[in-house]
Amino acid sequence: MALINQEDIQTGLALISKDFQVDSKNWELEQGEEMTEDKAFNFLLKLVEHLMAHDFNRLLNSLYRIDVSEEKLKLALAESNHPAQTVAQMIWDRELQKVETRKKYSGR
Q: Which domain of life is it from (predicted)?
């Protein structure tokens, strides 16, 4: 995958905020602090961990809305020692795929 720039990270986080119906203020950093892909992923991981523990149905509905493949998810979870991390990675990959597709077809 290509290097992720700041705009792609922010767009990915905006998609996650929309898909999970969470306030985008949850993604904010200290003043002057730059968002990195690792920080963005860690925010997503914490969200997934929270939903797995407290609102699993909301997580499943969000995965459906995001269009994470149910079959790939089942396979990945069966092989994973860290289910939340696996789910978060699948979400992040899918959201970044959407960002790339939108850029491709918007002419940018």
A: Bacteria
The pair phi, psi for residue 55, each rounded to 5°, is: -155, 65
Sorted by where each begins, the domain ranges of the chain are: 37-102
Q: 45 and 52 in contact (C-beta within 8 Å)?
A: no
Look-up of token digits 């792609």: 8
Residues in CB range of 43: below 8 A, 6 or more apart: 13, 26, 27
CA–CA dist 62, 36 (Å, integer)? 23
Distance CA 91, CA 48 (A): 9
Which whole-number Å values give the CA distances from 21 to 14, 15, 59, 61, 62, in the listed order? 10, 9, 11, 11, 9
